[in-house]
Amino acid sequence: MKKLIPHVPKVVSYFFILLFCYAAVSKAMDFENFQVQIGQSPLLSAYAGWVSYTVIIIEIVVVFFLSIDKLRQSGLYFSTALMTAFTVYIFLILNYSDFVPCSCGGILEDLGWTEHLIFNVCCVVLGAISVLINAKTSKSTYKRSLAYLIIFNFTAILLVTTLFLKSEYIIKQENNFTRRFLMHPLIKTSTRDMETSSLYFAGESEGNIFLGDRNFPQQLISVDSSLREINRFKIKLDLKKYTFKKIEIKVSNGYYYIYDGTIPIIIKGKLGDNENWEISNNDVFFNQLEVINDSQFAFRTQSAKSKNLMLGQLTITKTGKNKVRLFPQLLERQDDGVFDSDGHLSADHKRGVVSYIYSYRNQFLVMDSVMQLKNKMRTIDTIEKAQIKTRALSDGRNKMEKPPLKVNGQATPFLGLLFNPSDLRGKNESKRRWKNSKVIDIYRTDQQEYIGSLYIEKFGEETLSDFLITEKNFYAIVGHQLIRYRITNSLQKHFQKRGSRKP
Predict the structure, then answer these.
(1) What DSSP designation does 227 have?
(2) Quick one: three-class SS letters along 362-404?
(3) 281 in any annotated domain
(4) Is residue 299 located within the same domain as residue 412?
(5) Residue 424's CB: how many other CB atoms inside 10 A?
(6) Is the pLDDT of residue 110 over 90?
(7) How far apart, in Å, are the Cα atoms of 80 and each of 50, 51, 141, 152, 413?
(8) What's the rounded Cα separation, in Å, for the pair 322 and 279?
(9) Cβ of 431: how many Cβ atoms within 10 Å?
(10) What pLDDT does residue 170 have?
(11) Residue 432 phi, psi dihedral angles, 5° rounding
């Protein structure tokens, strides 16, 4: 065993040579995509230009040092420090970043971020052991090597941490807008542990709320308004016939609707009955769908020619000859027509109103039941132009070059109001309160008017993932908790029933 120990530094050096050679070559061969991956990083997006070149150069230099006997010790210092930098980077990504980018490519492409972290820690340990073994047996040389090892690694930690603190994406941009918070708009009345965090709201019908489960897509869950009675039933669906990839369920007016958009199929069934039937087959492909009423659906699709996102309407007819209308003029292109137009489509079944809110700019659209534009509104933040940067790769792919500044969430219209989960902190808003809650801004849909805002508190580290509004209650999914809030008069007084008008 003692005879093998002196050979450890050389073996570890060969391992690092293979690792860094492969890493540098794979990055250089797919350099365009590597730059995009660096740009997507919340720590390095502002430095993607020079960092992409620097990382490859450093890896090549380290390989050169490791390949020469006289420089091998220095190469081990650099190797260990480089792996420490990568380890700290992944640790910050996993624990302090709101945005987790795609995993790096190359030899470790199939590993997740946690596996990367473990691999890097092992490399750091191997490098440190090799440095100390390679040091001479005298105390002075050993202490000097240990000191250099600490200095190199501390410098790597300091450098990555500094980039983290200075990143424009990590440090939230201060926007020049002020929120006003409604006086106790919601009062928490009950909570139910659903024992899973994969739920979403499918809809509401006859006083009950309905939830879908992404882990069990053919299951529909009915919960009474008090959250006491829960019923689950499995929806009959021939998955050999329907090659769905990501099933979604909507509930409206006593019926459920099944779809995913990757195949042009919509299936309808009556609540409480697992039998169902096709109402749309090969009419249109879509990436978002909303039920307006029993025979009308709003959808979002992508133009085959221009590749731009656009809205449309599907009308189900008794003759079976369904009608599809496209409205390419509704979504306004600012840059690429895809990422800049991305957003969330929703509908208010009680008022026959359809809304579309842009994810990356302060604007939302309000349409009637036949998709005619009624209003083009602004949210209270100041982001008028989507702050995105895309790059068309040589192989035809189009990718985000930097993490975009997300402005709006999955806004939902209800009785003349639009409830928008915002991703930006307002001027003079409590940073601590904002960090521990999800803020929802409320707007009128019939005219440009900001009503106010409300907070939905986190449950532990879990934040609001979905919500549903009825005339009396506000339901929220926070982690695996289903929470009911009673809507008080300070918010309820702004509701508008169908046909009503408020000054």
Answers:
(1) S
(2) CEEEEECCCCCEEEEEECCCCCCCCCCCEEECCCCCEEECCCC
(3) no
(4) yes
(5) 23
(6) no
(7) 22, 19, 18, 8, 54
(8) 9
(9) 9
(10) 37
(11) -65, -45
Does residue 191 sit in the same domain as residue 105? no
Assigned token pair, 146: 């240990």
Q: Map residue 440 onto helix, strand or coil.
A: strand
151 Cβ partners below 8 Å, 6+ apart? none
Q: Is 124 left (phi over 0), alpha (psi -120 to 50) or beta?
A: alpha
Q: Say how many domains are in the chain.
A: 2
Q: Is the pLDDT of residue 308 over 80?
A: yes
Tell me the pLDDT tens digit for each residue of 348-375.
988 889 999 999 999 999 999 999 999 9
- Taking every pair of Cα atoms in the chain, the longest distance, rounded to a whole number of angstroms, is 93
If we measure between CA atoms, which residue out of 240, 232, 312, 235 comes closest to residue 280?
312
User: What pLDDT score does 173 carry?
Assistant: 38
Which residue from 62, 83, 98, 107 is spatially nearest to 160, judged by alpha carbons?
Answer: 83
Domain hosting residue 371, numbered range: 186-209+288-492
498 within a domain of the structure (yes/no): no
pLDDT-derived band at 388, boundaries 50, 70, 90: confident
Instruction: For residues 161 and 159, give the distance between their C-alpha atoms in angstroms, rounded to a whole number.
Output: 6
Residue 127 lies in a domain: yes
Which three-class secondary structure state does DSSP give residue 347?
Answer: strand
Q: Which amino acid is at 193?
A: D
**Helix residue ranges per DSSP H, 370-495:** 431-435, 489-492
User: How far is 446 from 311, CA to CA, in rounded Å?
Assistant: 20
Residue length, the chain? 503
Do 11 and 43 belong to one domain?
yes
Tell me which of 405 and 35 has the higher pLDDT: 405
DSSP label of 359: S
Which residue in the block uniquely carries the two structure tokens 């979604």? Answer: 248
Letter string b/e over residues 352-366, b meaning 16 or more CB atoms within 10 A of that residue's CB: ebbbbbbbbbbbbbb
What's residue 327's pLDDT? 95
For residue 167, the model assigns a pLDDT of 55
Task: Please tell me the predicted confidence (pLDDT) of residue 395.
Answer: 64
**Do residues 312 and 325 lie in contact, with contact meaning Cβ atoms separated by under 8 Å?**
yes
* pTM reported for the whole predicted model: 0.70
Pick 320 or 2 by higher pLDDT: 320
| pLDDT at residue 269, rounded to an integer | 93
